[in-house]
Amino acid sequence: MSSVLQNLIDQPYQAGFVTDIESDTAPRGLSEDVIRMISAKKEEPQWLLDFRLEAYRHWLKMAEPAWPNVSYPKIDFQDIIYYSAPKPKKKLSMDEVDPELLRTFEKLGVPMNERAALAGVAVDVIFDSVSVATTYKQKLADVGIIFCSISEAVREHPELVRKYLGSVVPTGDNYYAALNSAVFTDGSFCYIPKGVKCPMELSTYFRINTQDSGQFERTLIVAEEGAWVSYLEGCTAPKFDTNQLHAAVVELVALDDAEIKYSTVQNWYAGDANGVGGIYNFVTKRALCRGARSKVSWTQVETGSAITWKYPSCVLLGDDSVGEFYSVALTNHKQQADTGTKMIHIGRNTKSRIISKGISAGESNNSYRGLVRVGPKAEGARNFSQCDSLLIGERCGAHTFPYIQVQNPHAKVEHEATTSKIGEDQLFYFQSRGIDVEQAVSVIINGFVKDVFTQLPMEFAVEATKLLGLKLEGSVG
Amino acid sequence: MIVKDSRVLLEVKDLRAAIGGREILKGMNLTVRAGEIHAIMGPNGSGKSTFSKVLAGHPTYEVTGGTVTFEGKDLFALPPEERARAGIFLGFQYPVEIPGVANTQFLRLAYNTVQGARGKDELDPLEFDDFVRERMKLLEMDPGFLDRSVNEGFSGGEKKRNEILQMALLEPVLSLLDETDSGLDIDALRIVARGVNTLIHKDNACVLVTHYQRLLNYIRPDYVHVMESGRIIKTGDPSLALELESRGYDWVSEEFRSRAAA
Description:
The structure holds 2 protein chains of 2 kinds. Chain A is of the alpha/beta class. Chain A has helices spanning 2-9, 32-41, 46-61, 99-107, 112-119, 137-142, 150-156, 158-164, 175-183, 424-431, 437-453, 458-472; strands spanning 23-25, 84-86, 122-127, 130-134, 146-149, 186-192, 202-206, 217-223, 228-236, 244-246, 249-254, 259-267, 279-289, 295-302, 307-310, 313-316, 322-331, 336-345, 351-360, 365-374, 382-391, 397-406, 412-421, 474-476. In chain A, 25% of the residues lie in helices and 35% in strands. In chain A, the strands form 3 sheets. In chain A, strands 5, 6, 8, 10, 11, 13, 15, 16, 18, 20 and 22 form an 11-stranded mixed sheet that branches. The longest helix of chain A has 17 residues, at 437-453. By secondary structure, chain B is of the alpha/beta class. In chain B, strand 9 (174-178), helix 6 and strand 10 (205-209) form a beta-alpha-beta unit.
């Protein structure tokens, strides 16, 4: 049986190719000079340069976190290229976008103009640190929504960016967040004004291109009172042998009665079957439910990267605010994932819900790490957590590290966890009813993840289902 | 029912099979014709469950010798799922639980896969729902079973009914029912037996693997075989089962040994 499971996993990465576009690249390594160069290249105001330098000075004093349940060779931060941009061109419209770039997206199955038009999705394309095309901006602008690259937001809406940037993830928050704050080159900015329900799903495709270039996106989403937005983030990366560091920061702010739904499908290059290459995905994602009755829902489907280190979190400050975390993390071959969430209950009657589904195959290691903290004033706080692990084969690992800290005697916190294995007997049961092993695995996996996938926007759920099947091909045998 | 000169469905010749290098089946011989019900009895460890699993293709067992033909084809040339599509059905002694997969989804997938392999029409979820509810009546099953995960939290009797429901849906040519009676109370046993009796007809066949004679009060076999040490040591009519019930297995064993010595 293990050889059938094995064959399912051994599927080559289907998005592995390099696009040849002239780059404008910083020298390797990090210093105040490099940060000044990035800031100058981007013609940034002084306050942002100060923000970067403050973060850099924090970073110098910090140590790489050693607590995650992952292992990798030491990263040489002086061997990374911190800035790489396609040659600057005049302001682009859709038909002026580099055709080479468009072909890249086609190969990935993202024909963005058609996709955007057909699906009604506004796509803010990140290609190697600089945003090159933004669509549907006008339609969004009509209702007062700002959706643009963070660089553009710094130029066009500096007061908003200055007000909220770093307000959820401070410059000195953690090692990788500090690094990101010092060197981030681009990302997305989204602002939904008071009372506006965003008329379409907002979607960003990220893609690392230049070999050896670190990628440091910065995303900031602000939902004013009563605003509603659903944001989709999906990514694939080309195949490289050297490891690429990816340290993004995502900040979400929800004011009174606002709701943000943030969905991710992550399929960065995971390295080959022997664990060579692949992305180090060290991401800080955090939401601040600042307003009363605000709600943030994180949904993630993590299938790629050699190493994933990521804890999309909610700080539930406003009374009656709600935080949700729905996660499917799949690891195969030698992938390592240490992922989960933090739910910090500060306001009264705050509620949180955590549904985590980890799937381990091959020789991979998959850890759930989650913190539920209820502060002394969080009267009536409620949490429910469910962490399920599914093992495929004999050589993988699943781990659960739940941390629960309750300082209020009236809080109610529930934690449930299960570990199961796709067993030979389950597969034989399917086979004895005429169903082959690959289909059996797919049915079992889809059943396992369905509580999370029902949270995804429909077209994303369809893609994600295909992705899981693809990633597990050859893993059952 | 024994129909003279009816079609041979299953021909087992000198079958040997091992698990982890230890031989369990040591020369099984059995011929099953269309329309027949065979009961295989024997003490624990005699190899009767192994026999049914080997025929269905369980991966734990290694076939070390002999041949099995099913409707004239070499059974061992087919992977387990193709044996099922060809019409072999194994009713499990301990049906496995499959959390997260709705029973109705599983049943429809199995049904459509087997239908497709036979070149017949598949059913969409609505059509299937009508169809499966009709079949569930035969087994007096609550439609609520459809929405639950496959076998998860089912009682022993519910699991066995779910097995016979699958038999009713897949309409196999040869059903191998492994200790279907174990864990059933008398009412459930009667319902399950009625289901099996309804499903068996002149063009298919059934092999009942059972430890107790009790089941045979409800499903009347044409042949009763006694297994010991991985082979059949005695074959008789239904009266043999009653005799085993009253006298145990030892006398059959002794009779076999003295016959072998002679």
